[in-house]
């Protein structure tokens, strides 16, 4: 069974979406604490024109170059959001919405041109919109996995620094941690995760890979470390299960299935979560009411 | 009317309605809610299609409005459970959108709906589906729908002008004056959904976000008066829609994409050149705005 999986393309794809899920869950956890959940949505949409431009420039579908293109245009998007917010009266969410939609529109313009050009239609660039993990070849998978592992490595190696950076910026400054440097690395890691995910999950749903596992993990732990681990576990499992499900039908997009599996984990966490899950809260409420009633009964009996 | 004329009228109507609704999205600081609703409207339309088994304007409208309201409600509910507001938005819309895409790609399959169409819009097909109205005569179905939606949006904005103004700028004051803030919120979310559904056919799910947010954000840089902002935003919307169409026809590319791109250009021009809040004005007339003096001194 295992050898069958490893030999077939599905095995490789499965491995890559799982790694991607792990990386996305980890960095998503950090985005959650930076309160930048929707930033990932804006950046993933903003990556589209870069993908198509890179394709138009090179003329072939080489994932590494497409990823570099995507990263450049996502970074331009991030810079624009920052610039518009800081130098005008436009609020951050308006700036994000604009960058998201205008970049995406520009991407679609270019995509239409690319699809019209020779060989463009077979390039499978459309798969960048909803994600088609099955269309990945082995070299794509290796590129993706290498980058995803790099992301996980960067977070793991500086775990203590990340924690201080996220939770106590003053302290971080105090011990001589460069906030600007940390911010740059954070943005780089975030953008890397987003751009390696868009082939498998698609530009539209990539944000979900970062947001949903992190929020789900929040319901199980108060400690940052275990939240990080849980979040990446949720991401990895969603990636694997979603890919498996989508491989049942021919031409089924991978992204939506991964997202739905992740959402399933979220609902389970929301209801049964150890920390502030709905069920736990309800039971605690009932116990409290019972105790209050018992006290009231005792009191009234005592008065008699 | 000719084929091209209908397309331009339709595009202009999209720009106009979206521009008007967008103003309040910007002022209420709920711009990303437009993004969320525009995605989930897809699910509403798919379900309406699965239930009625036909592509009809009214069923899609109802489905879209319901989906929009469900989104607004779920986001509010998750937020009340202490999930960060933008995280709850991110969870709700991506999940509902994913379900929509799955439904399309598995069960509806090769029927009239396809993901491509829903996401990109296909304004070039609009003049082919016509209906006959009593006074106007033959008119494309989507254009008629957009006209009705535009009138509805206009009616609600004018009828509750004062209420919108107060709830947008000072919700606390509005509540203390006895204006039902939550009802207004959901009414507004319905308006956003209606506009989105009507624009769906022409510009698709994501470009409608550009039409909703960008013209209004541009107008926000030109004026401090709500009425002027509404007029300007509608005007910018129409300009971008028409310009986008001609650019697309010129270099032969996606019309909706180029409309979205045109809104971006309008914003860029406003961002740099607006006499009131643009970048240039800050350097040319320092001292008019407090923080600019500091900027120049630095």
Describe this structure in words.
The complex is a heterodimer of chains A (304) and B (298). By secondary structure, chain A is an all-alpha fold. Chain A has a domain at 2-206: ABC transporter involved in vitamin B12 uptake, BtuC. Helices cover 81% and strands 0% of the residues of chain A. Chain A has 15 helices and no strands. Chain A has helices at residues 2-7, 9-33, 37-46, 48-58, 63-87, 92-116, 127-130, 138-157, 159-167, 169-174, 179-201, 206-218, 224-246, 254-272, 278-303. In chain A, helix 2 packs antiparallel against helix 13 and helix 8 (138-157) packs antiparallel against helix 11. The longest helix of chain A is centred in the last third of the chain and has 26 residues, at 278-303. The relative contact order of chain A is 0.16. The model of chain A has no long low-confidence stretch (mean pLDDT 86). By secondary structure, chain B is mostly helical. Chain B has a single domain (3-297), classed as Orthogonal Bundle (ABC transporter involved in vitamin B12 uptake, BtuC), CATH 1.10.3470.10. Chain B contains 13 helices and two strands. Chain B has helices spanning 3-27, 31-52, 57-80, 85-108, 115-120, 141-159, 161-169, 171-176, 181-220, 226-251, 255-273, 279-284, 290-297, and strands at residues 130-133, 137-140. A two-stranded antiparallel sheet of chain B has the order 1-2. In chain B, strand 1 and strand 2 form a beta hairpin. In chain B, helix 1 (3-27) packs parallel to helix 6, helix 3 crosses helix 9 and helix 9 (181-220) packs across helix 10 (226-251). Chain B is globular, with a radius of gyration of 20 Å. The termini of chain B are far apart. Classes of the chains: A mainly alpha (304), B mainly alpha (298). Chains A and B meet through helix 3, helix 6, helix 12 and helix 14 of A and helix 2, helix 4, helix 5, helix 9 and helix 11 of B.
């Amino acid at each position: 069974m295992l050898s069958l999986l490893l030999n077939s393309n599905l095995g490789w794809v499965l491995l890559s979406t799982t790694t991607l899920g792990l990386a996305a869950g980890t960095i998503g956890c950090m985005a959650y604490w930076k309160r930048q959940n929707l930033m990932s949505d804006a950046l993933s949409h903003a990556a589209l024109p870069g993908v198509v431009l890179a394709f138009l420039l090179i003329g072939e579908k080489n994932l590494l170059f497409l990823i570099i293109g995507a990263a450049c245009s996502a970074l331009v998007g991030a810079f624009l959001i920052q610039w518009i917010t800081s130098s005008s009266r436009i609020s951050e969410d308006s700036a994000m919405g604009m960058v998201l939609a205008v970049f995406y529109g520009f991407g679609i313009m270019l995509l239409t041109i690319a699809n019209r050009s020779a060989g463009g239609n077979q390039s499978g660039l459309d798969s960048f919109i909803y994600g088609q993990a099955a269309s990945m070849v082995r070299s794509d998978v290796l590129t993706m996995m290498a980058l995803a592992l790099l992301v996980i490595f960067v977070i793991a190696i500086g775990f203590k620094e990340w924690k201080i950076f996220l939770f106590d910026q003053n302290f971080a400054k105090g011990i001589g941690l460069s906030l600007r440097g940390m911010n740059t690395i954070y943005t780089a890691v975030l953008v890397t995760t987003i751009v390696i995910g868009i082939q498998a999950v698609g530009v539209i749903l990539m944000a979900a890979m970062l947001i949903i596992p992190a929020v789900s993990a929040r319901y199980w732990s108060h400690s940052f470390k275990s939240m990080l681990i849980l979040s990446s576990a949720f991401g990895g499992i969603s990636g694997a299960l979603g890919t498996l499900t989508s491989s049942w039908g021919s031409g089924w997009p991978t992204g939506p299935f991964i997202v739905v599996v992740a959402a399933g984990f979220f609902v389970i966490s929301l209801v049964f979560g150890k920390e502030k899950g709905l069920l736990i809260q309800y039971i605690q409420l009932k116990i409290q009411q019972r105790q209050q009633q018992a006290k009231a009964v005792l009191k009234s009996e005592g008065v008699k | 009317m000719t084929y091209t004329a209908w397309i331009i009228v339709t595009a202009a109507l999209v720009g106009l309605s979206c521009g008007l609704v967008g103003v309040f999205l910007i002022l209420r600081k709920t711009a990303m809610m437009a993004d969320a609703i525009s995605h989930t409207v897809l699910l509403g339309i798919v379900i309406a299609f699965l239930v009625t088994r036909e592509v009809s304007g009214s069923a899609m409208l109802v489905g879209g409005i319901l989906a929009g309201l469900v989104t607004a409600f779920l986001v509010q509910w998750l937020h009340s459970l202490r999930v960060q507001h933008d995280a709850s938005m991110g969870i709700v819309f991506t999940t509902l959108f994913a379900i929509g895409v799955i439904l399309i790609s598995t069960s509806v399959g090769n029927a009239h709906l396809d993901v491509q169409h829903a996401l990109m819009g296909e304004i070039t097909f609009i003049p082919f589906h016509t209906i006959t109205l009593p006074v106007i005569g033959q008119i494309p179905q989507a254009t008629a729908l957009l006209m009705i939606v535009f009138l509805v949006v206009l009616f609600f904005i004018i009828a509750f002008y004062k209420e919108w103004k107060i709830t947008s700028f000072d919700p606390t004051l509005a509540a203390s004056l006895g204006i039902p803030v939550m009802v207004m919120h959901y009414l507004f979310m319905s308006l956003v959904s209606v506009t989105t559904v009507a624009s769906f056919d022409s510009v698709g799910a994501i470009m409608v976000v550009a039409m909703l947010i960008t013209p209004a954000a541009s107008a926000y840089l030109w004026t401090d008066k709500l009425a002027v902002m509404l007029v300007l935003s509608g005007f910018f919307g129409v300009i971008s829609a028409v310009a986008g169409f001609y650019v697309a026809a010129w270099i032969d590319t996606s019309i909706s994409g180029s409309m979205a791109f045109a809104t971006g250009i309008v914003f860029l021009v406003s961002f740099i050149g607006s006499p009131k809040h643009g970048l240039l004005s800050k350097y040319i007339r320092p001292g008019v705005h407090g923080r600019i003096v500091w900027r120049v001194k630095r």
